[in-house]
Design goal:
Elements: E1 3-4, E2 7-8, E3 15-22, E4 26-34, E5 43-49, H1 56-66, E6 76-83, E7 86-88, E8 91-93, E9 101-102, H2 103-110, E10 115-119, H3 120-127, E11 136-140, E12 151-156, E13 160-165, E14 173-176, H4 188-198, H5 212-226, H6 235-243, H7 248-272, E15 276-279, H8 282-286, H9 288-291, H10 295-301, H11 307-311, E16 315-318, H12 323-335
Length: 347
């Protein structure tokens, strides 16, 4: 046994932690056996279609029951669920989920009492130091500046997630609602789109355009601007049309999206004084050819007198479908022993 300060100390026992990344469409789960000083390795990764299950508890219970196939596995010590929303009392406020979420009911019905809910993008930011190097694809700046802090993490999905990772800080991640900041225009096309949207909405925020649903909103605006009807109903259809050169407006929409995302990313990098930037989310993988085409980088750097400062900031696109699960597990590894998030605060 190890000796500590003149006395015999017991070794820290290994525990099994379940990590979950829950979105409006899918829930992704995995488990890890956490041992001090060892890297986090995700096992048993599985994806659930949320609409096919009656509750979050049902998904967690089903996944936990599958761990019986590992008889030598240490007992499950905790479940950490990364999920978007606001915890008000016992209930999670999130309009994009397939079902309501009660923290107490989820604990009771799943049979997993040691259960935590954390903000989904806090989890993503928590995962950054654990991402494999081959999952990082440079978009701008000097890749030699590795994991500089503050690190801006953002990703378009159902909305636009934004968080900041800080070194030697408690907590290590600052959650943000930057996706709801007002969207600004940088050229005539974007001004036209904003005029259209301002006629329909009192506030046009960044995720109105820079998200999965926002990509389709942008495409509809470009079609309206051109006097034609939209041909595509989903981002997948739009991306396929752009790849096959079947519709010039589909290609124009995606290029406009990537450029606008670059502009907003540059604004946020300046706002937070970021020394590194990480772009995440499944939609960025689908748009990878256009993100690396140059429009994103050009608009990221187009900040007048401060362009030279952003030239030194490395920007990476992360290609890792298990990032949310990894972040949930990393959050537990990094913050175990701290108190739960108080009710009424953003998760």
């Amino acid at each position: 046994m190890p000796v500590e300060q003149g006395r015999v100390s017991e070794p820290v026992p290994a525990t099994t932690i379940i990590g979950a990344d829950v979105g409006g469409t899918y829930a992704r789960l995995g488990w890890a056996t956490l041992r001090p000083g060892e890297p986090i390795r995700i096992n048993g990764f599985r994806r659930y279609a949320c609409a096919e299950h009656p509750s979050l508890a049902a998904i967690l219970q089903d996944y936990a029951s599958g761990l019986r196939a590992y008889p030598a596995l240490p007992p499950v010590g905790r479940v950490v669920v990364a999920i978007a929303g606001l915890l008000e009392g016992d209930r999670l406020l999130n309009t994009n989920l397939a079902w309501p979420v009660s923290l107490a009911a989820t604990r009771r019905e799943s049979g997993l009492g040691e259960l935590e809910l954390i903000n989904d993008f806090v989890a993503v930011a928590q995962a950054i130091p654990h991402v494999a190097r081959d999952a990082l694809h440079p978009l701008s700046g000097d890749p030699a500046h590795d994991h500089g802090s503050p690190a801006l993490v953002l990703g378009p999905g159902t909305g636009l997630g934004v968080a900041l990772r800080l070194e030697n800080s408690q907590p290590p991640v600052l959650a943000s609602e930057g996706g709801h900041a007002a969207l600004s225009a940088g050229n005539a096309l974007e001004l036209d789109v904003l005029r259209m949207l301002l006629q329909r909405h009192g506030h046009v925020d960044c995720e109105r355009i820079l998200s999965g649903p926002g990509l389709m909103t942008l495409h509809a605006c470009l079609c309206e601007r051109a006097g034609v009807a939209p041909r595509w109903q989903t981002p997948a259809e739009l991306v396929q049309a752009a790849r096959s050169a079947d519709d010039p407006l589909a290609l124009a929409s995606i290029r406009a999206f990537c450029a606008w995302l670059g502009s907003v990313t540059g604004d946020l990098a300046l706002t937070f004084g970021a020394r590194s930037v990480y772009l995440t989310g499944g939609i960025t993988g689908h748009l990878a050819p256009w993100l690396h085409e140059g429009g994103f980088q050009q608009r990221f750097l187009a900040k007048g007198a401060l362009s030279s400062a952003l030239q030194r900031v490395p920007v990476w696109r992360i290609d890792d479908g298990e990032l949310g699960v990894l972040g949930a597990l990393a959050w537990h590894a990094d913050t175990s022993g701290r108190s739960r998030i108080p009710t009424g605060e953003t998760l």
